[in-house]
Amino acid sequence: MTTLLTYVPSPGHTRAQHPESHLRMTPLIPALEQSGVLGKVEMIVPEPATIGQLRRVHTMELIEYVHHLALRGGGSLDHGDTYVTGESYEAARLAAGACAGAVDQIMIGNAHNGFALVRPPGHHAETDRVSGFCIFNNAAVAARQAQVTHGAKRVAIVDYDVHHGNGTQDIFFEDDSVLFVSTHLYAPYFYPGIGGMYEIGTGRGKNFTFNIPLPPYVGDRGYERVFDELIEPRLKQFRPDLLLVSAGFDAHWQDPLAISGLSLTGYAGITRKLIDYANSLCAGKILFILEGGYQHDVLSAGVTNVYHALLGHDIIEDPIGSMPRNEHDISDLIDRLKQHNLLN
Ligand SMILES: [Zn+2]
To answer: What pLDDT, on the 0 to 100 scale, is given for residue 230?
Structure first.
């Protein structure tokens, strides 16, 4: 059994004082080394995504826009939230290409599973629009790589970042071959402001987008129920050939950008559920792809715990502990989502 690691820290794509910087990545490899994980994984060298791979999910206008902006030295987009530097075009291509390369190794059977530690993140990048710190949609490029290059019929993407994966939803909204499932904080003024339960896809894609919009302070128990009662049955119905995870660690209660309530132990629990689903539904083919996560200790331990789970270790690192308040009860929401999605 081989577990992959591919690493794209993109130090040239960074802006001072911005929460999404290469400083998020700096502690990751030392943390993996210290926990004994690094020697047990197979590191693969990332290659940049080709224009053809990007064109499967983005318009040529968007790709050229980012390229030209980078050639001019960069600039701000999206009301200043999303930046492009002179090196961002190459960095974003490398992040997306690393994910496609990891999919190649998993689909041809050279590896069992893996985690692509890449940035810039991708899940807010839409077909024709960069947004929310994201430039190219890494998970979407990975899904299409599995389908176009390796003949996968159905790919499921589960997004447990605290923000809704509006970009991934946009790209696959009319597509019944990619199931997009997102758990996210859904509250007034919280980015990106969409991801309600009635956004379910359209045309052939109707019912292949499954949004699970959560109130603030949903914790380990709430997430466990969401995975057991909503996500597992939907994945069983869909029967994916590959499971991709948009793995953001900003639903942790200490994250500075959100007000959710997962602990590291809770994250490890839902991570292990996803690996179990992949083992029972698609011969263990699962690739985690890094999205957000802005508390650096949480990110390091969260990433380490994913590798422990992928490697079959019975270890969970949680030096921080649980949210120091009662979690929000979501029984009514779960019932409504079950009825809405015919999961009873
Ligand atoms: Zn996020």
So the answer is: 97
> How far does the centroid of ligand 1 lie from the alpha carbon of residue 316, in Å?
22
What CATH number did the domain enclosing 214 receive? 3.40.800.20
Q: How many domains does the chain have?
A: 1
163 CA to centre of ligand 1 in angstroms: 4
Supply the residues annotated as catalytic. 124
End-to-end CA gap in the chain: 36
Mean pLDDT to the nearest integer, 112-133? 97
- Rounded to 5 degrees, what angle do the CA atoms 63, 164, 205 make? 75
Question: Which H, E and C letters describe the chain, residue by residue?
Answer: CCEEEEEECCCCCCCCCCCCCHHHCCCHHHHHHHCCCHHHCEECCCCCCCHHHHHCCCCHHHHHHHHHHHHCCEEEEHHHCEEEECCHHHHHHHHHHHHHHHHHHHHCCCCCEEEEEECCCCCCCECCECECCECCCHHHHHHHHHHHHCCCCCEEEEECCCCCCHHHHHHHCCCCCEEEEEEEECCCCCCCCCCCCCCCCCHHHCCCEEEEEECCCCEHHHHHHHHHHHHHHHHHHHCCCEEEEEECCCCECCCCCCCCEECHHHHHHHHHHHHHHHHHHCCCCEEEEECCCCCHHHHHHHHHHHHHHHCCCCCCCCCCCCCCCCCCCCHHHHHHHHHHCCCC
How do residues 308-336 score in pLDDT, each as one tens digit? 999 999 999 999 999 999 998 999 999 99
User: 322 alpha carbon to ligand 1 midpoint, in Å?
Assistant: 20
Residue 76 has a pLDDT of: 87
Q: Work out the average pLDDT over 218-245.
A: 98
Q: Can you give the residue range of the structural domain that contains 152?
A: 3-340
Q: Ligand 1: distance of its center to the CA of 255 in Å?
A: 10
